[in-house]
TrEMBL record:
Protein name per Swiss-Prot or TrEMBL: DUF3567 domain-containing protein
Domain of life: Bacteria
One Pfam family from the record: DUF3567
Lineage, top ranks: Bacteria, Pseudomonadati, Pseudomonadota, Betaproteobacteria, Burkholderiales
Organism in which the protein naturally occurs: Hydrogenophaga palleronii
């Protein structure tokens, strides 16, 4: 899990759900589909959305563009606001 962005309004985490643990050499029990994704937390509403599959690929493309163009915080948060409209899950501490 890697924190990619954290502000007063949003947090974005890159989750590598099926990534092997460091030093783990044990064989897996058959093929596993990687479930990498991004969690976007809207701190203002207290809700989060998890992007995986094609949504995660689209968001990864956006991150690549950001890495090349160095956007302002306002530009990043405008984009995150669009994804935050998908947020349905309340943030729960666990």
């Amino acid at each position: 899990m890697n924190m990619l962005y954290d502000s007063d309004a949003f947090a974005v985490v890159h989750i590598l759900a099926n990534a092997p643990l460091e030093g783990d050499t044990s064989p897996t029990d058959g093929p596993q589909m990687p479930r990498h994704g991004f969690e976007i937390v809207d701190k203002r509403s207290g809700k989060e959305v998890y992007l995986d599959g094609s949504w995660a690929e689209m968001f990864q493309s956006q991150i690549t563009v950001w890495q090349q163009s160095m956007p302002s915080q306002e530009e990043v948060e405008d984009t995150l606001e669009g994804y935050a409209t998908l947020a349905q899950m309340p943030v729960v501490m666990h």
